[in-house]
From TrEMBL:
Name the record gives this protein: histidine kinase
One GO molecular-function entry: ATP binding
SMART domains: HAMP, HATPase_c, HisKA
Subcellular locations according to the entry: Cell membrane
Residues annotated as domain HAMP: 183-235
Reaction it catalyzes: ATP + protein L-histidine = ADP + protein N-phospho-L-histidine
EC number(s) recorded for this UniProt protein: 2.7.13.3
Transmembrane residue ranges: 6-28, 162-181
Coiled coil: none
Domain (Histidine kinase) ranges: 257-470
Organism: Natronincola peptidivorans
GO cellular component, one term: plasma membrane
UniProt keyword Transmembrane, yes or no: yes
């Protein structure tokens, strides 16, 4: 079924409303105009009677009185009669031939005697209503004024003809205004509809630009707001989708990497155990070397499993940290001791700088140690032989800021948003399982700490803060 446009509906509504109003007005004037016109005519004739009375005054008839009567009679195109209180005609003047209607009905006569003006209709020679008679009381006389009905009917006919002319013009003007205002109202709605269609096609560049203070303007502003929100939300969803795809890829890579990481030490351990069983290692020194290799590979597997268990606990949402006060400098020294052998092997220079070193801080000491361990391990892994590592601490009032800097290659800018995710390892990653920074992130978030990473001129700096103990 074909739907009508809002423009056609509005136009038809205005048209129907105009037709109804014109019809009502026409019916009202047909019904009430003759009566209204007659009432107004009676008032005018009453005024003429007062004019005649004023001319006569208390004097007897004179030429001036007669001239006034003739003048008024000519102006009303009717006849005027002057009666005494008994109803006898004293004088009359007019141009309509025989004076009719001088026999005043008793009801109207009583009205006149009470001091009020009365009017009635008188019949002509053929019995039809031909005259309007107005009887107005004066101080001395009673004034009877008679005009022909034809005069009234002609005036009403002229008024109706003019009214029809006005209604015709009014109808045309109403139609033009209806078309204009309908179009003026519809045009912005059409624009809003076009914007909505563009939004459906994911084109968010089209905006509502009109400056209106009405409901349509508010709708346009709301549509602009919705466009911006949708654009922002879709952009975020696209980023999240890309992130999820990348994360899923990382998970698969992690499973492969973990399998490889486990398979390698298992294969090594299995191979050396078989060698020991087969008696390949004959000397005590060779056997001891085999056992050390087996022990080292076992530690690798243990570390991998431990990190996976830690991350699972931290990401479960149920893990609770044990917050207590401890000396931050002591914890840093304790953590550095783990890296003495690696520091000597790579000939690294490690410095501790800043004024937050000996502060008392609040946190889970074991987990903060884990954060320092993972960040330092990351720094050692990415620092070349003979490189430089700095541990910088700053006392910032209620918090201690810590930055761990290392020389070496910078992190690619596109990788920075993902390095904190579980299982992630960059293309240039040197060792590790991709779990260390994910553990750092989860521990610091449980402490309500801020954290981040930034590339420097010659390397990378990971940083975080921790609350001070009052």
């Amino acid at each position: 079924m074909r739907t009508k446009s809002i423009f056609s509906r509005l136009f038809l509504f205005f048209l129907l409303f105009t037709i109804i109003m014109i019809t009502v007005l026409w019916m009202v004037q047909v019904k009430l105009l003759p009566q209204y016109y007659q009432q107004e005519k009676v008032k005018i004739l009453e005024d003429y009677a007062k004019e005649v009375e004023k001319a006569i005054g208390k004097d007897e008839w004179n030429d001036t009185s007669r001239e006034v009567l003739e003048d008024v009679s000519a102006r009303i195109n009717g006849r005027i009669a002057i009666l005494d209180r008994e109803g006898n005609m004293l004088y009359h003047e007019g141009m309509m031939g025989q004076f009719r209607g001088t026999r005043i009905p008793s009801e109207e006569w009583q009205t006149v005697l009470s001091g009020k003006t009365a009017s009635y209709q008188a019949s002509g020679t053929r019995g039809n209503l031909e005259f309007l008679v107005v009887v107005a009381p004066g101080e001395q006389y009673i004034y009877l004024i008679q005009i022909h009905f034809q005069t009234i009917e002609e005036a009403i006919a002229i008024a109706r003809g003019f009214y029809i002319y006005l209604l015709g013009i009014g109808l045309i003007v109403a139609l033009l205004l209806a078309a204009f205002f309908s179009r003026k109202l519809i045009n912005p709605l059409v624009k809003l509809n076009d914007i909505a269609k563009e939004m459906a096609e994911f084109n968010f560049k089209v905006k509502w630009e009109e400056d209106r203070q009405d409901e349509i303007g508010q709708l346009g502003e709301t549509l602009n707001f919705l466009t911006d929100r949708l654009q922002s939300t879709i952009g975020e969803l696209e980023k999240e989708l890309a992130k999820e795809k990348n994360l899923e890829k990382m998970r698969k890579e992690f499973v492969s990497r973990v399998s490889h990481e486990l398979q390698t030490p298992i294969s090594v351990i299995s191979g050396y155990i078989e060698a020991l069983q087969d008696g390949i290692a004959t000397s005590e020194e060779e056997q001891e070397a085999y056992f050390k290799i087996i022990e080292m590979e076992t530690h690798k597997m243990s570390r991998l499993v431990r990190e996976m268990l830690d991350l699972g606990q931290l990401e479960s949402g149920t893990f609770k940290v044990n917050i207590e006060g401890f000396n931050y400098g002591d914890l840093i020294n304790k953590t550095l001791c783990k890296f003495e052998i690696m520091k000597k092997e790579k000939d690294l220079i490690v410095e501790i700088k800043g004024n937050g070193y000996n502060c008392m801080v609040l946190g889970d000491e074991h987990r903060i140690e884990q954060v320092l361990t993972n960040l330092l391990q990351n720094a050692v892994n990415h620092t070349n032989h003979g490189g430089h590592i700095k541990i910088i601490t700053k006392n910032e009032g209620t918090k201690v800021w810590t930055g761990i800097y290392n020389d070496g290659e910078r992190i690619a800018q596109e990788e920075i948003p993902y390095i904190w995710e579980s299982f992630y390892k960059g293309e240039k990653e040197k060792g590790g399982t991709g779990l260390g920074l994910a553990i750092v992130k989860n521990v610091l978030e449980l402490h309500g700490s801020s954290y981040g990473v930034e590339n420097t001129d010659k390397g990378v700096c990971f940083y975080f803060d921790i609350k001070k103990q009052n």
